[in-house]
Design a protein that fits this description.
With about 220 residues, the chain is α+β, with helices and mostly antiparallel strands. The protein contains eight helices and nine strands.
């Protein structure tokens, strides 16, 4: 079974490494894409932007100040209203101790406001530190933001009472393509997984193996 996992993980690494590999390093990744399939995320070897974020308590914090403390696993998720995101974050509990033993911290970034993060913390127990990117600084900087179609925004509101509040100057709602980045203390990207299909998430065991491989 152990050999089988290694083979599976090795194959997954090759697949994930090739994802978006045709994108040029010169792309302007701060541009919000018109659809999830067209995002242009940062690639392995590039450096994460020093984005300004907020904690769940509303305190300002820079991403650089956080990641310089220890290697980091960054989880970009859509929000506490998303069941796929909640399942992903809950699954981190299975590998939290193992990641901690490797020296990692887990940072979970969403476009929700600090107040929404507070409510999320009260409703669920997550092993990650929840961070607000309501100004889209990190989502833009990592090249994973996309505009949500107006009809989709309206459907979320009418059928699920969900307000997609992450809007830029265009007035259109913006979401991140769900993503995982593993960074060293210098902010260099050692591993990335970005999937435009929000229903597909990186399994906890593969994330752990990627974190161990990235040291």
């Amino acid at each position: 079974m152990r050999n089988q996992i290694k083979i599976t993980f090795g194959s997954a690494l090759l697949l994930l490494s090739s994802l978006f590999s045709i994108a040029s390093f010169a792309l302007d990744r701060t541009i919000i894409a018109d659809a999830a399939n067209n995002v242009t995320p940062l690639l392995v070897g590039q450096t994460a932007p020093n984005s300004k974020l907020q904690t769940a308590d509303g305190a300002p914090v820079s991403l650089q100040a956080l990641i310089m403390q220890k290697p980091s696993v960054l989880i970009f998720y859509r929000g506490g209203w998303c069941p796929y995101c909640n399942r992903q974050l809950a699954g981190l509990q299975d590998i939290e101790n193992a990641l901690d033993a490797l020296g990692y911290q887990i940072l979970a970034i969403s476009p929700e406001t600090p107040a929404q993060l507070q409510a999320q913390k009260l409703q669920s127990k997550f092993s990650a530190q929840l961070l607000s990117d309501s100004k889209l600084n990190a989502i833009r900087g990592f090249g994973i933001g996309y505009y949500v179609a107006d009809e989709t925004t309206a459907k979320y509101k009418s059928k699920k009472n969900i307000d997609l509040n992450a809007s830029d100057t265009s007035g259109k709602a913006v979401l991140p393509a769900p993503a995982v980045f593993i960074l060293d203390e210098q902010g260099r990207i050692k591993f990335s997984y970005v999937n435009p299909d929000f229903k597909q998430r990186l399994a906890p065991e593969l994330l752990y193996q990627a974190a161990k491989y990235s040291l």
